[in-house]
Specification:
Length: 126
C-alpha cells in the first residue's frame, strides 16, 4: 500500500468536510456531490501549483460549492442563527486561510467549523 501524499490528504479532507455539511443541510444529491468533485479536481491543480496552499483548500472547496449551488439552486447553507428577516446564507471565513468556518455576518457570529454544520442545526437550501 502506498502512503497518501499531503496533497491528497488535504483534498480528501476538504471533500469530506464539505460533504458532511451538504448532508447536514440535506442537499447531498448526486448532482450536488458532482459539484464537490469538480471543485476538488480544480483545486488539485491549484495546490499542485502552490503546495503551501494545502491548508486553505477546504475553505476554497466550500466556497466553490457554495457559489455553484447559488448559480443552480439557491443559497446554501442557510443561516440557522437568525430567526427573523430574509433567509440568508452563511459565509466561509477566512476567505483564504486555515481553519475555515461558517459565519453569519448579519448576527456577527461564528456558527460552525467547516464540516460541523450538523451540530449547528442548519436548514436545507432555499
Amino acid at each position: 500500500m502506498h502512503p497518501i501524499s499531503p496533497l491528497e490528504q488535504a483534498l480528501h479532507a476538504a471533500r469530506a468536510l464539505v460533504l458532511a455539511d451538504l448532508v447536514a443541510g440535506r442537499v447531498a444529491e448526486a448532482d450536488v456531490v458532482s459539484l464537490v468533485e469538480d471543485s476538488v479536481e480544480e483545486r488539485r491543480w491549484w495546490v499542485e501549483q502552490w503546495p503551501d496552499g494545502a491548508a486553505f483548500v477546504a475553505g476554497l472547496v466550500a466556497q466553490d460549492v457554495q457559489d455553484a449551488l447559488l448559480d443552480r439552486y439557491g443559497r446554501w447553507p442557510l443561516c440557522p442563527v437568525c430567526a427573523t428577516g430574509d433567509p440568508h446564507a452563511l459565509d466561509v471565513e477566512p476567505e483564504l486561510g486555515p481553519d475555515p468556518h461558517w459565519v453569519c455576518h448579519q448576527a456577527g457570529v461564528r456558527v460552525a467549523a467547516l464540516g460541523s454544520l450538523g451540530a449547528a442545526g442548519t436548514a436545507p437550501a432555499s
